[in-house]
Amino acid sequence: MKPVVQLIEEWTAFEDASNEHSVEAFCRYYLQKQHPKPQYTSEHIMNGVNLIKTIGRILKAYSVYFRSAVNHNDMPPSEGFYYLHSLSQLGEVKKSDLINDMFVETTTGMEIINKLIREKKITERTSPDDKRAKLIKITEKGTVILHEYYKISTKAVEMMFKDLSDEVLIDCNEMLEHCAQRNLSLAVELKNKPFPQMYERVMEQ
Questions:
Q1: At 171, phi and psi to the nearest 5?
Q2: CATH topology of domain 42-163
Q3: DSSP run (H or E) holding 94
Q4: Separation of alpha carbons 204 and 200, rounded Å
Q5: Rounded CA separation 144/81 (Å)
Q6: Whole-angstrom Cα distance, residue 173 to residue 151?
Q7: DSSP string, 53-65
Q8: In a 10 Å sphere around its CB, with 0-12 CB exposed, 13-18 middle and 19+ buried, how is residue 81 labelled?
Q9: Of residues 58, 51, 56, the one with CA closest to residue 157
């Protein structure tokens, strides 16, 4: 295969795997692909465990900053922010679609969604394609509240990553983006399956 043809094929695969389609991102993607496929040794698993611990600590610290900022600004509990943010990205969808996107149990998700509907931050209507289903979307009031949350979140993010350069943040994000996208789609598909079936399906990818 000619190198230019191979390059075009690699670029096509890159576009399917990444949301950022810059030359710099492609170069990082291609170089990462050249690394040998990992062997699932105990050392590899422990490296993964350590990475998850680090990500968990980052999320915990961010959560402390964000909750404190929300309380300081007399805003509603932050759980509503995440639902409004997801819904603003998804557009008008079924309640089940938002619940799946949030990775929560149906009863928990319905409770928060119905609360946001009562607060007029979300509106609902019967689906024209399925009279049994309800379509929901963010309202103008919800959008205004969401932007207030964004202002607060920006401060928390500044605090979290004040010592890291843009280059480091971009590299970290791009290195983990494929892992995130692959596992998120699989997790939605498999969340109600028995673990052995879940494990087999994920590991065969």
A1: -60, -45
A2: Arc Repressor Mutant, subunit A (1.10.10)
A3: strand 93-94
A4: 6
A5: 11
A6: 22
A7: HHHHHHHHHHHHH
A8: buried
A9: 58
Number of other CB atoms surrounding residue 141 within 10 Å: 13
Nearest to 76 by CA among 129, 101, 112: 112
d(C-alpha 1, C-alpha 61), whole Å: 49
Read off the pLDDT of residues 62-113 as tens digits, 9 standing for 90 and up. Answer: 999 999 999 998 888 888 899 999 999 999 999 999 998 888 888 999 999 9
Q: Which amino acid is at 204?
A: E
Q: Which residue has the tokens 């994920």?
A: 202
Would you kindly state where each structural domain of the chain is located, as residue ranges? Answer: 1-34, 42-163, 164-204
Residues 81/146, Cβ–Cβ less than 8 Å: yes
3-state secondary structure of 135: strand
Question: Using CA of residue 35, residue 37, residue 41, residue 44, what is the dihedral sign?
Answer: positive
* Percent share of the chain, pLDDT over 70: 94
Using a cut of 0.90, tell me whether the model's pTM lies above it.
no
Q: What confidence tens digit (pLDDT) does each residue in 109-142 have?
A: 999 999 999 999 999 999 888 888 889 999 999 9
